[in-house]
Specification:
single chain; 378 residues; alpha/beta; FAD/NAD(P)-binding domain; 9-stranded mixed β-sheet; 8-stranded mixed β-sheet
């Protein structure tokens, strides 16, 4: 339990889906939790904003009802190639669409209700010594027994921790915007174009989320986002129809660069990594948000066991987390790499679509392999 204002049982670095769900879970179990997030809430983020229904039992256990937040129910999937070949499928588990602006804000409010402390600050240094952590921010220093890293795809902390993936530049750029227009509420679409792909789905308030990822080398040939969209993305007729017949809600689209899909370690310097900080599945597989929430549950359950004495040592905690993380996500990430690599080759993508049409059972199978089963609440 908390012994002084600067000491906590658990410090969580990053207030996205993984960080916030961990904060709710752990604070519900009477653990003192500090969450450090550099941004305020609510805030839009570059994200596909489709979540598999596999997480619903867990969110409900955390007292989060996404449909009271007006999330859209999604049960159909559509995939197109750069040459406009289309294949459709039902989603085996289904999912829902909700913006990060809405969901993160609701999760943050719930964490605060559960007496987790959330501060807006930036972590500048983390030290581990004598079986505890010292976390330094721009404004203060905090101590804890456990640290969860949930700060997203790429951060200065990765440089400090000398993580292997951060040493290599990544060629990927992502762009996200919200628009008003016509699009089915129950559909999530993934439309490929030369050098990338764009996810499309409805979120709350009858809003369409458009989020695409592309190779930066291909993107920089054009003077700006508008020209890239007109000359590259619009070659996919489905995307052209959506973009040209909708009204942008953002003054300018959100962008993020240096997105890395390289292998990451789920444990660094005794920190338990969650969500994109531990490993990022290609958006082509559309399940990164669910994976972030599921990893938060795994970490939280094991941390509770550690404080309750069921896991006797830090080494036992770390081994248990690594084992569970690999069992749950390693094959998903591997398949995500394979699928993304295949669809990055346009001619091969066209052949694959034809194959999926001949063997229609394969698409739901691939979807199942990149998604999990319904989460158990423990």
């Amino acid at each position: 339990m908390k012994t002084n204002p600067s000491t906590f049982d658990i410090i969580i670095i990053g207030g996205g889906l993984a960080g916030l769900t961990s904060a709710i879970h752990l604070s519900k179990n009477n653990r003192s939790v500090l969450l450090i997030e550099k941004n305020d809430y609510p805030k839009h983020k570059v994200c596909g904003e489709y979540i598999s229904n596999e997480v619903l039992p867990y969110l409900e256990a955390l007292d989060i009802d996404v449909f009271k937040l007006n999330a859209e129910k999604i049960n159909r999937f559509e995939l197109s190639t750069p040459k406009n070949r289309v294949i459709k499928s039902n989603l085996p588990l289904g999912g829902f669409g909700i913006s990060r602006f809405c969901l993160d804000y609701a999760l943050a409010k719930k964490a605060i209700q559960n007496k987790a402390r959330i501060i807006q600050d930036t972590v500048t240094d983390i030290q581990f010594a004598n079986d505890s952590f010292s976390v330094k921010t721009k404004q203060a220093t905090y101590l804890s027994k456990i640290v969860i890293g949930a700060y997203g795809k790429r951060a200065n902390l990765d440089v400090q921790l000398e993580r292997d993936f951060i040493k290599n530049k990544s060629p990927f750029l992502a762009v996200k915007t919200h628009v008003k227009g016509e699009f089915p509420e129950d559909l999530v679409a993934l439309h490929n174009f030369e050098g990338g792909y764009c996810g499309v789905s409805k979120v709350e308030n009858d809003t369409i989320n458009l989020c695409y990822i592309t190779d930066f080398e291909a993107f920089k040939k054009y003077k700006d986002i508008a020209e890239f969209q007109q000359k590259v993305i619009y070659k996919n007729t489905a995307l052209k129809t959506i973009f040209e017949n909708s009204k942008p809600l953002f003054d300018v689209p959100l962008t993020i660069s240096q997105i890395s899909f390289e292998t990451k370690n789920p444990i660094e310097n005794h920190m338990l990594m969650c969500g994109d900080t531990a490993g990022m599945i290609h958006p082509l597989c559309g399940n990164g948000m669910s994976m972030a929430i599921r990893s938060a549950q795994m970490a939280s359950l094991l941390i509770i066991k550690f404080f309750d004495g069921d896991l006797k040592t830090r080494e036992a905690l770390e081994k248990a987390y690594l084992k569970k993380w690999n069992a749950e996500f390693k094959s998903r990430l591997r398949l995500g790499h394979v699928v993304a690599k295949l669809f990055s080759k346009n001619k091969l993508a066209e052949i694959l679509i034809q194959g999926l049409k001949v063997f229609p059972f394969l698409l739901p199978y691939i979807i199942k392999r990149t998604h999990g089963k319904m989460m158990e609440v423990k």
